[in-house]
Each structure stands twice: as structure tokens, then as C-alpha cells.
Amino acid sequence: GAKYRLGACLTSINQPEKAVNYLTKHQGEKRLKKNILSFLLSGNVSDEDYAVAKEDMYRNNVMMLRVLSAIATTIFIVCAILGVTVPNMNSKMSTYLVGMAFSIAILLSAFYSKNAKLHTICMCFLDVMLLSVGLLITLVSAPQQLTVTLIPVALLVPLFFDVKPCVFLTVVGLSDLIYLIFAPIVKPGDILALDMVDVLAFSIAGIVIGTIITKVKVERYVYANRIRRIALQDGLTECFNRKAYVDDTSNLSSEYPNDFVYISMDVNGLKVVNDSLGHEAGDEIIIGASQCMLKSFNKYGKVYRTGGDEFTIIMYIDNEKLESILDDFNSEVSNWHGKMVENISVSYGYTKAVESRGLPIYEVASIADKRMYENKTAYYKKKGVDRRGQADAHRALCNLYTKILKINITDDTYSIVNMDVSEQ
User: Percentage of the chain with pLDDT > 70?
Assistant: First the structure.
């Protein structure tokens, strides 16, 4: 029908404004429906933001699961006790006992299990259990009364856990559907209309409020994650910085798992590049080396920039895969070419769990550093460069003269290489 009406408008040569107005209105309605659907399903939050907020959401959910299951257990115990002593509550005793048993099981799982999937199942089950209790009381135990249990539960369930709105929309929606099917059968006619309006109104309110709160929470988690990442990320290379390294290694136990690997890396020839081509070229090879590291190691662990040209990788990988990953890294380094620097070279040394177990992390680092420097010495020896001889010659030269200048005749500039600190 919309196509024919639009066609009629477009073919009305004397009414072009009507055609444009109709098209604008039609597109606006379509956009509005899409926005409403997106709001109900995801709170207008992207999947990327949910992925960033995933860990924070999980931690909050576990905490809420413990709190809510403890509260639910306490309420069911109190209700069961009252059911024994209060005549009006005796008819609901079986409901209280079943709820108490399930809430205790969820409470134990929340405190003693570390299984993320089990926690997710418990979260869903707790929501379903609370809604089921509300349904049982309003439809079975006390159908002749106005609903007083399902309404607050339907309102609060969307507020309990940090999940996508489509999850609690589905749970509350199914609960309302069950209520709408059976309420006309069991509820007295004089309270049915008011009861149905109350249940639906509070359910919708709960879903809308829960969606808004979820959106705000996820945005807050994403912002906090971005701030944390800035604080723990090296600005030049996008690797983790030294603070992140200290924070992570301070929590490491000396009983390293079997797949633990510690790699110490150092970029070769940085000083020569800085002195001959400038610090911009030096930054280029540091960035290039870090990109090779991130491509090769990032999915297995973390890459840290712990100094100017010094990097550390802590990862967890099967020993049989380690050599293959290192070969991939060597290939990345060999294939790298920059704008100011033709190629790069990186020396590294590593230690595995079998030789690290029982040692504090600084000793593990010392072993890897020693092997890295052996690798670096072999590299310079192969290049025909005696680094120790260079240092000795530099010291001997500096001791001969009061001041040494490095002069650039092309642009008529100089820099001080060495000078007597007592010179006025």
C-alpha cells in the first residue's frame, strides 16, 4: 500500500511537495521504529562497547548474584518460618520451601564457583525463579487477591544484573505472557482489569528503566576502561607501559603455570639511528618493533614497553608452539621497512616455566635479560661492531679534551658531545 501511495504522489506532477513530504515522513517513521527496536534490544549501545565493558559487567553481576541470592535465601527462610506460625501464609509454604532450596543452591554457586558460564546460568535462573514465585503466588496461591508479588519482581528484575536489555525483555515478557494467558481463568472479574493494567504497566516501566540504567552503566564502564587503558598504555607504541608491568608482575605467584613464558627484548642500533638520523627515525624503529611484537604475541599474552628500547612479553603458550611463534616474529621483523629506516633488528632472550618455577619475577627477568644481551652481543659481533671497544674509546677521547663538539658544516650548527663540568 505504501508503494502505491508513494507512486501516486510521485506521479502527481502538480504536487511535488506532497511527494517529498510523504517520503520524509515515511523515512522518519522507519527511523523511529528502528531506534525504538535498537533501544529495547541493546539500549542503543554497540556490540564493541559491550565487549569492552564485558569484564566490568561480569564482576558486578557476580557481586549482585551473591547479594541477591543471600537476600532471597533470607526472605524465603523468614517466610517459611512465618508459614508455620501464621495461618494465612501456610498455604504458600511449599512455594517458600522450593524457593529457599533453589536460592541456597545459587548462593553456594555464587560464592564457591569460578565458572563464568555457571554464574550466567544462575543469574538467569534467579530471575526466572523470582518471577515464577510471583506467578505462583498471584495465579495459584492467592488468585482472588490483587497481585502484590509479581509487580515488584517484574519492576526490579531488569535492574538486578548488567546484561543486554534483550535478556530481561525476554524473561519479563515471557512472564507477562504466562500471566496474561492464565489470569483471565483464575482471577475474579472485579479485579482482573486493574490487576492486568498494574502488571503490564510496572513490567514496561521496569524494562524501560532497566534499559536506561544498562546504557548508563555500559557507557561508564567503557569510559573507565578507556581511562585505565590510557594510564597503563605507552603513548608511542600502544603497548602496555612500565606501570602496567609492575602492577601485573606484583600479583604473579612464583608457582608459574606450565605454559608461562617470559621474553626480554631490545631493539638493536637505536643509539646509532638517533645520532645519525634523528630521534624521529629512532621512534620509527621503536614503533616498527612494537608492531611486530603486538602482531606476533598480543593474542597469547601482554607486550610491555619497560624502557626506551626495552620490551617485555609475558604470555601463556604451549612450549611446542613457542618456536613457531618466535619464527613468525622473526619473519615480521625481516619484512618490516620504514620511511626513514630501511629495516630493524631485535635481540631477545626468554625463559620458560620449568626453569622459572620457585623464582621471584625479578630473577626470571634477570635470566631472560642475560640471554637477550648474549643475543645482542652475538648480533653486534656478526656486524663487526665492538660495543665495549667503542665505549672505551669514547671515554679515552673524552679524557683528552676539555670540550668536544659535533659540528654540522651543512647547516652551520654544533652540539656538545663532552665538556668539563667545572668550565665557566
Answer: 90
* Amino acid found at 120: T
CA dihedral 293, 297, 302, 306 (to 10 degrees): -30
Residue 25 φ then ψ, to 5° = -65, -40
3-state secondary structure of 15: coil
Give the sheet arrangement for strand 301-305, strand by strand: 301-305, 310-316, 260-267, 346-352
Name the E strands within 5-130.
Answer: none
In sequence order, the β-bridge partners of residue 260 are 316
Alpha-carbon dihedral angle through residues 374, 376, 379, 381, given to the nearest 10 degrees: -70
Provide the angle, in degrees to the nearest 10, between the axes of the packed helices 165-186 and 150-160.
170
Residue with cell 547479594: 67
Amino acid letter for position 102:
F
Cβ(365)–Cβ(262) below 8 Å: yes
Q: How far apart are CA 16 and CA 20, in angstroms?
A: 6
Burial class (CB within 10 angstroms; exposed 0-12, middle 13-18, buried 19+) of 36? exposed
- Calpha distance 167→159 (Å, rounded): 12
Q: Is the dihedral of CA 293, 298, 300, 305 positive or negative?
A: positive
pLDDT tens, position by position, 21-38: 666 666 767 777 777 888
Residue pLDDT, tens place only, 331-371: 999 999 999 998 999 999 999 998 888 899 999 999 999 99
Question: Can you spell out the DSSP letters for 109-176?
Answer: HHHH---HHHHHHHHHHHHHHHHHHHHHIIIII-TTS--SSHHHHHHHHHHHS---HHHHHHHHHHHH
Q: How many other CB atoms sit within 10 Å of the CB of residue 157? A: 23
Could you tell me which of 390, 404, 52 has the C-alpha nearest to residue 226? 52
Radius of gyration in angstroms for the set of CA atoms belonging to the chain, rounded to a whole number: 34
Question: Could you give the 3-state DSSP secondary structure of residue 21?
Answer: helix
